[in-house]
Structures are given as structure tokens and as C-alpha cells.
Input
Amino acid sequence: MADDLVLESEQQCVAWVLSGCRPRSAFRIGTEYERLVIDASGRPIGYEGPAGIHALFERLMQQYAWRPVLEGDRPIALERSGASISLEPAGQFELSGAPLALVDAMVAERDHHLAELDDIARELGLRYVFAGMNPIDTPQTVPYMPKKRYQHMRAWMPRVGALGLDMMHLTCTVQANLDFETPEEAMEMFRLAYLATPMLIALFANSPWRHGAPTGMASTRAWIWTDVDDARCKPGDWVFDPAATVDDYVQWAFDVPLYFVKHVGEDGVSAYLPADRPGKTFRDFLREGDRGRPATLGDFELHMSTVFPDVRLKRYIEVRAADCVPPDLLPALPALCKGLLYDPVSRRAALGLLRDGDRRIDRAALRDAASREGLDGRIGDLAVGPLAVALVDLARCGLQRLEGEWGPDVAARDAIDAIDAIARGEREPLWRVVDRTLRTTPSLSALAHPLAPHR
Output
């Protein structure tokens, strides 16, 4: 098992990433999305209590055959049929969907999941908020979840950035996970996802408030990530280099400090402990071990889940730049990514559109413009809105070609149409809707998604 395989060389870690390579016929897409859970008074729910997260988990297990993942005697996640439900630090409720070939299947999974949750919400008096962040609270006014790894993260964050606690406790995202066939394809997809990040931020921008007040930004969540922890969030401009390799990514991750190391005590119980010295990187762990034991492949896999770039490379690619959006738009990110990243023709056209390899462009400034101004953002002659329209068009063409290979995907077409309406100004940007709603009624209840009709 990976937890027990002692690492004897850096190349074992590169090989772990590349073990994700698979034939195109086996390609799938995973979708993850977080949302806030609030009670009848409009407050985020805690873990305990008759209408808390634990009670919600218990009903999902009893009524819908979800299996618990325990930490001690407490369920901290649920699993079923390749999908999982997990908790972020302040109780943001996340579904990590099963890997699926078609967005059609993702929509069916979404609808089934939301129907289960809506049934339980009626029983417990709960509601769900699909937004890029909690616009009302601060990190000090939200409930904390009893996951031990989060205790170490809370202690670490203020040492390395001003906004890490906001990121942990207030933000919500939608994420797409994608496969790759070769190391070269992995890096081409990785690079394009990075190049497209400002446009994804703008299209999905849904977080204009922070700490109970407007920020003047379209995606405050995207801005928050710029001051969380530079070492683990900002790999550097090499991510835009066409010559970058998987080894470059792994080497960067080696130099990110450890949050914690998982140790097993004499009683057989595992615990997350801070590294045996402050600032210890994974590279140091490889060389020195920790508390008398060597680094294992399981340690590396855990570490790779604690680096937070906009695009994360593991045994698949995670596109992580989008705010969470209402359920009708959740399929848009996997649809965009499928059309742009899985179709080679659209992928290479998008690289050309975004001036792949042009080192004169300040990519960080373009990302900042998108976070602040949404589709109106621009730097120099690069305008976010027109680029977003062009990327949506390329994704649509890519999806059409993929249908010849993988079969019809009606939900993907519908999702592209929905996000295209935002790109072209035919549908009001989500962040403007949220801003207007909160200026009228500054509460989480005002943003709560309506429950589906009772089944």
C-alpha cells in the first residue's frame, strides 16, 4: 500500500503522478462543489446538535446508504458508489462526484444528490447556499468542524498570509477533475488551464461581499487566494512555460512546507502532527524522515492534497479557479473543461488564442483584473470578456467533435449555452445578482437556494 511504501528516490513521486496516465477511451470527468448549510435562522450549522452536520450525516447514512469515514468515532465524510461527501473547515458541504464520461451523467448525479439533501433539509429545517463565499461571517463567527488536520492549518495560516483563515472558513468552489494520456498531454492541459484561469474566474464570479460588506470585486474568493500562502499557492511563472514538465511540478511541491505528518501511535491510532521542526519541506522529509520514520508514498499523496495552486496536478488535473455557482450552472465548468482540454483541436486553438509562451504578458495582473472586474477586466490589449466568449466557442466546437468519439452529451451542450449567455452579457453575471440581493437583505437566508418540490 502507498502508506507503507518507503520513498527511496524523488522519481518515485514523479512516477506516482504519471501512474494516472490512461487511454482516451478511459477518460472521465469528476466534478466537486461546496456549498454552505444554514439553519432556519440563517446561520451556518455546526457539527453537533439536532440539526447539525452530524445529524445530516446520520440521515444520509440511514436513508440513502452512504457509508461513514470516521475520525475516532465521528463521521467526517461519507462514501458511496465512487462519490464522497466531505467537510471543509467551517462545515462547507462538499460533494466529490464519481468520475463520469458524460456531463449528462454528472447532471443526473447532481439531481439525485440535491433531491436527497432537500428531503433531509425539510426534516431538519436546513437550507443550502451556493455562492463563492460566505458573505456575512468572519473566520471567528463560523462553526469549526472537528477534523484534526484543520487545527494545524488554523495555526499555520496566520504565519504565512493575511487571508488564509478566510479561505478556509468562508470560501466555496466548483472544481473539475480531468484525465490525461501522456506526460506531455498532462502538461499541455495543465498549462492551458492556467492560461484560461482569469476567464474562468470571471465567468463563474459569484462572491462580491466579504465580512458583511461589498468588496467592489466580482470574485472576492479568487482575490483571497493571492494572500493565503505563497509557497503552496503560487508555483511561479514556469507554469506558463511550454517546456515545463511533470518533474518541474513535483520539484516545486517538494519545496512546499509540510502542514503535518500522519503518525501512528503505539495504540495503533493515527494522528496528524506538525513536522518535527518548523518550516520543514517535503524535500527535507525525504532526506531526514520525521520522528524516526522515513517518508512514504502515502505521505507524498497527502502532501500533494495540501498544495493549493489554481491548477493542481496529482494523478489527474484539478481545475480549481471557479467560485461555486447555483446548481443550474454547476455542469458548466466540467463542460467547458471537457470541450477545451479533452479535444486536441480546441486545446491547441485555445493555446494560440491565449498567446501560449508569450512571456511579455503579466498573467498575474490579468488574473487580478478578472477577480476585481469580472468580464470587464483587461490589461493592455487583453480583455477578459472577449477571451471568455472565444473560449466558450472553442469548447462548444470541442464538445461537438467529442460527441463523434464518445456519444451525445446533451447536458454539456446545455451547460455551454448557459455559460455562453453570461459571457455574452445575455444573462446578468452572478456576482451582480448576489450584490443586489445582499444590498437589499444582507443575510445568508436571502441567498438560500429554493428546495425542490417534495418527492
Notes: The first helix runs from residue 11 to 18. Residues 276 and 290 are 6 Å apart (CA to CA).
